[in-house]
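Quick check before the chapter quiz. The format below is the same one you will see on the exam, so make sure you can read both the input and the output lines.
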Amino acid sequence: MNQAQHSKYVSRTPPSIPPLKLTTPGDHRWHIACFKCDTCNIPFNADSEILPLDDGTLMCSDCTHSCCECGKKIEDRAILAKDRAYCLKCFRCRRCKRKIEDLRYAKIPSQGIFCMRCHEILIAKRDARREKMKEKEKARFEAGAGGGSVAGGELAAGGKPAGGLDKGGQSQV
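Here is the expected output.
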């Protein structure tokens, strides 16, 4: 553990407490008085169920996350994707329903999480739809103002619409 990491844990202890240390999973160390849940600050004891997180923080069983899919308390490894927690069983691609085991995923707001393969397929479909819309818009533009006609009418000499009214409201025909 480097000095910065050590300071993170040791700095919680008031100076009057002797530097007694204990070791937990992940080889992180705490003073005994600092060995408490990072969420509720209740000290751990011999009967405590402790969930060590990858960043070295600790949570008690009362403070552990609940899976956003199945609703059950996550008692082993939780996967946090922004503001949502998933258990290993429920961390699946929304499109193909396969487990995302390599933890490489994409999250689309209001749609869920996707494996990278399905995400690439969705992006390709989205890009194809956008390209099709651009082509339709371009064709509509060329058929309208850019294609030699104005609202179905022909252009007269000088590029002005044939027929219609002049500035004074008189017919040009």
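If your answer matched, good. The chain is about 20% helix and 20% strand.
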